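Assemble and predict.
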Amino acid sequence: MSNEIVLPILPTSVIGSYPKPWWLRKVKRLWEMGKADDDDLMEAENDAVTAVVREQELAGIDIPSDGEQRREEMVEYFAERLGGFKFYGPVRVWGNNYFNKPAVVDKIVYKEPITLSEYLFLRKVSTRRIVKVTITGPYTIADWSFNEYYSTKEELVKELSSIINKELKMLADNGALFVQIDEPALTTHPDEVEWALELIDRTADNINAKIGLHVCYSNYRLLMPHLDNLRNISQLLLEFANRRFTDLDILKDFPLEIGLGVIDVHSKRIESPEEVSQAIKKALNYIDADRIYINPDCGLKLMPREVARLKMENMVKGTMIVREELKKRGREVTIFRTRM
Amino acid sequence: MLKKLKDIGLDVGSDLMYFDDDIFYPFITDIQNVERGWLVRYYDNNYFVRNIVIKSKISLKTTRPWFTEKIGVYQKLSDLGFSEYIVALPGPLTIANYSIDEARVYVSKSQIMIDYARIIAEIAESYINNGIRVELHEPELCFTSQLTNELIRQIYVDLFSPLGEKVHLVTYFGVPNLEILNLLPRDLTLGIEAISLEKSREIFDKLKDFSSIRLGIVDSRNTKMEKIDDLISLVFKLEDKGIHIKYLSFNSMTEFLPEVIAYKKVKLLKRVVEAIKH
Ligand SMILES: [Zn+2]
């Protein structure tokens, strides 16, 4: 990029999903019953995105997302819009939470852009220089689907990787600056991590945008040996609050930026600004501030909206405490990088 | 759900490896000095459990609230008239693997395993005394490589072996290696998945030593339907090799499948059982 974009040091962002306003859920139900038409739903979704983007910005978030207001579930959303998938019904993921796990029953086909209109609308309503678009990665789509068609999983991931590459290209060509690939499944099968990471990185081949990779609730140490091989991904966004900030030592000699998860998205308890600032300071023992972005552990969609809002506010307040201290040492900004 | 299973003719009434919340909860409400921890992946699945934080030395609560509630549930189920009941409990190695000894009250992981084993064996015995079989979920046996003879003896030989065939020691997400199979007592019912089994001749031969095998022949991690003829010939083949197959089952938890497919696969399992009986 010729014109450097400058952000406040420790830029704050979200992982993606944000609680939906009650009225959007209501319109969605009416739409499912045939009592609201597509335009009604689109209007409600647009209004919801406008509201939650504003809410993030008021909380002080530097890089907002559209809160994934138009999506129900991260794999389902993409599987529904690609050819080759079939849905048999929900399966359990944790506690009494279920997921409509798709099955690959035919060759996967890219029909049309999936997230482009989401991005364009977000770009229009946000006042921030950079917004974030989230895309479910090829490995997670494959791992969270039943494979009845491809002879190997690797073959399925390869296919998905080249399809998502087209989607990323479309986004970048239309001005998207920051795309986060969500790969919560990445470390599920330790013996697959190496080729999975390579294919995920290849998903972002020849894309002129910042590419982040989000992984959560799993063993990050499996990723460490392979991070040096990444050519396109410049930021890894990881959950740490849930695990009570154990494992922060992986950030020593970390070759990428870290999106530091400082807010537990599975607990309604609102973290105090001091807790957040202490967590950031812990991370600073291992990695320079210039390489840290601040975000919640994962998507906030399971939280009540007010709790999500307060959590974001305190996340920013906590970040401000550390920024004040950094300012005394003359460090106020960071450069927005697309490559390491 | 169970009513529906009875209707399609399944003999064993159980949770069908279906947990109230997750494999460890509410089970751990019967244990003193533990708390629910944070979310972690359950082995190689998109399935998450909360780990267990050990606050002090663990022991079985005298009141056993969860056990008492469960017994009540099974009494009601007996109205449905299944011929047998089975309850799913976490295996001691697996639950120890998902426990965090925050206060460092134990000198080693083995000590944690042994304490859990004592607790689980006591609960298992109580179920068996109430006419209910016990399914010990022990996928850790397929992942660990650090089990000593002594540890296996203390856990499985001393504590579970006396309970006999009514304890189903269920392994899944893979198969235990040969050394571990060598150490396990022969008088428990060993649950093992058929898919990975065919890959190893040695394991195949080792299984002959077990007096009761519960064979996981239907894949609960894929919606692709197995062909009934393949399953039947697999069972015959293994029986011909001298493996004592007493039960046929899914290869892991049914909650990994959408309900419609789970029922289709339960029916398939039933048809295999019928075909083999004739
Ligand atoms: Zn996440």
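The interface with chain A takes residues 21-22, 38-41, 44-49, 222-224, 255-261 of chain B (CB under 8 Å).
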